[in-house]
Amino acid sequence: MPTYDVAREWVERWDRQQEGYLPDREERFTALIDAVEAGVGRPDPLVIDLGCGPGSLSARLLDRLPRATVVAVDTDPLLLALGRSAYGRLENLRFADLDLRVPGWSDALGLDRPADAAVSTTALHWLPEPELRRVYGELATVLRPGGLFLNGDHLISGDATPTLARLEVAVHEREERRRFAQGRPEDWRQWWDAVTADPALADLTRARGGRTAAAGHHGSESGHLSTHVNALRDAGFGEIGTLWQRGHDRLLCAVRP
Q1: Containing domain of residue 162, as a range?
Q2: Which residues form a coiled coil (predicted)?
């Protein structure tokens, strides 16, 4: 396990490089947590964070809702170790090393009651549609009636509204240019090249090399809004819609009947 100081340094760099793709990342986090706070009807919700990475969203959620319990799910050993070291002092946060692509992950969560909400940011678009559908199908079995699913991601609408989709991308690109007029932070690949070259993380880098989930990215496999809406509807979710949007960066919400 990395030390707290090492982990915090890398998590802070992670947040900066993510902001290079998401100029409104913190605003989207805020909107998502607003929805959890307003929608679950209790001050101590049980929340599942799907594809949590090093725990950036989970930590922010607990900062706002300290009585919540968050189960943060990922399969990348390096990101999980950074999260455990950086945020291990949060007693209501538990990291779960599970591959969402493997059926049965929902049972392995070990929940003592149905979850009030599930959240995800910039993660599930990596899943091909058949796997995404299985994930949503399992997710519906662990959410309580009225439970929320909140997914913040770049989801394009080009298959349904091509003109609007072009405008959404244009809005996002113009915001990026304004925000990073003085230069962009390091990108995703540069961050990974740097973190895997850190001698303090050599064991975790080797462990990560044995996993296929984090290394198997081949672009945005499920990047269309309609793919997620249709998969959620077929999984049995009821109301489905966008709660917050900036360009094609949006917060999609679905309610379990």
Answers
A1: 4-255
A2: none
Please write the tens of the pLDDT for every residue from 12-52: 999 999 998 898 999 999 999 999 999 999 999 999 999 99
Number of structural domains in the chain: 1
> For the segment 103-156, what is each residue's pLDDT rounded down to a tens digit?
999 999 999 999 999 999 999 999 999 999 999 999 999 999 999 999 999 999
Q: What CATH number is given to the structural domain containing 123?
A: 3.40.50.150
